[in-house]
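Field notebook, page 426. I keep forgetting to write these up properly, so this time I am using the form the group agreed on. The chain and the ligand, thiamine diphosphate, are recorded exactly as supplied. Prediction of the bound pose follows.
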Amino acid sequence: MAKKTKLKVKASSNGSRPKAGASPNSSTRTYSISDYRLEKQNLSVRQVRKGDDVHYEVSGDLNTPVPPIRDSKYLNKQQCIEIHRYMLLNRKMETALENLYKQGKVVGGVYFGLGQEACSCASSYALDKDDWFAPMIRNQGALLVRGFRARDTMMQYMAKADSPTKGRDGTSHFGDIYERNMVSPISMLGDLIPVLSGVALGARLQGRNVATLTWIGDGGQSTGVTYEGINFAAVQNLGLVLVVESNLWAYSTPSDMQYKVKDLAERAIGYGIPGVIVDGTDACQVYDATRNAVERAHRGEGASLIEAKMMRMKGHAIHDGAEYVPKPMFEYWKKRDPIARFENYLVNAKKWLTPAENKELIADVEREIEIEREAAVSSPMPKPESALGGVYCEDGCHTIKPKYGVPKIKAGAGRFKETEAAVHLK
Ligand SMILES: Cc1ncc(C[n+]2csc(CCOP(=O)(O)OP(=O)(O)O)c2C)c(N)n1
Ligand SMILES: [Mg+2]
């Protein structure tokens, strides 16, 4: 089982309820945060000024050995290989996007999840079909896991007529409430959290406890709406699953200058929900923590917060060369590449793939990406007059039916509680 890190918090602090067993008269309370990692970094980044020059320096032990992948409690061989394939697709799709950008085919910028593929793919893989998700910019892998094709993302970036928004948006602002249960990304950081809490509430009103997964960066979690959204899910026991992408940077702000707590999972104590730390470059750890949270959501027990520690391996977007990042940090995290580590796990540790089978899998992914790229490039640009479409209501576009059932709350029932709602399913 995962190791627990004990946190001591003064009795007067306004945290979640302490674990049973704490003495009622004690002046300190003990809270626990599960920490699944097999390695705990002790690196820190500080700003150094020398005359007019301001730069960042990293300190700590940068020469520690790369830990093994932790065996999953849940995943079997076939599922691990499937996650490996999604991570490869995620990476190769983004490499293709970088090339399309350099060829002048992309209309705006491009965002990458390099180094974060395990976090995106393994967490979304832990959802059941009925669950919901809302991706952020680093979660293009989650779209692939949930059934979008690489061409959808490519066409979005090129604003093509066949793209999900028919060329009306140049990045990722699209959703799918019918097939894949995806809420469209909202650019204002944190705002997806109350929306996903609301999706969980809506589903519960219709008689179903679903898990609603979204992600937030180490920078984005500082916003006020993050607090509001998690707190609402916490107090209503809604199945929000929040993955905090602790990737050490928010634009050019290092996480050491973003928050004061040691680990962002500690925030969970303040909300009164479970908090877990995982190695975000270990697909098995990400999967297991998310699956536990998803199952908790299905049982109607409420929200969970998962902090995934990793590193943003490129700049904020394609325009940002990330020169401000101390080079040794890239070298350190490059050795912890989630795909290389998982490949080593599958081929050498578990022997679930022979080197030849792995090679064939990679070639197959490359073939698929080439077909997707070709289809995306050949899609036409939208006709100018189509820009007028999709703004005002067209036939039936506002008919959104309840997904699971028609809610009927007992007359006179006060503040909503699951047991107070009489839910009539169609
Ligand atoms: C409320 C709000 N403030 C600022 C921005 C501009 N902005 C977009 S991404 C970003 C940095 C996000 O950093 P982080 O949350 O750590 O995510 P990462 O890029 O590292 O994945 C900022 C400041 C925004 N979109 N929304
Ligand atoms: Mg960040």
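OBSERVATIONS:
- The pocket of thiamine diphosphate (ligand 1) is lined by residues 138, 187-189, 217-220, 223, 245, 247, 249-251, 312, 316 (CB under 6 Å).
- The radius of gyration is 22 Å.
FOLLOW-UP: compare against the apo run.
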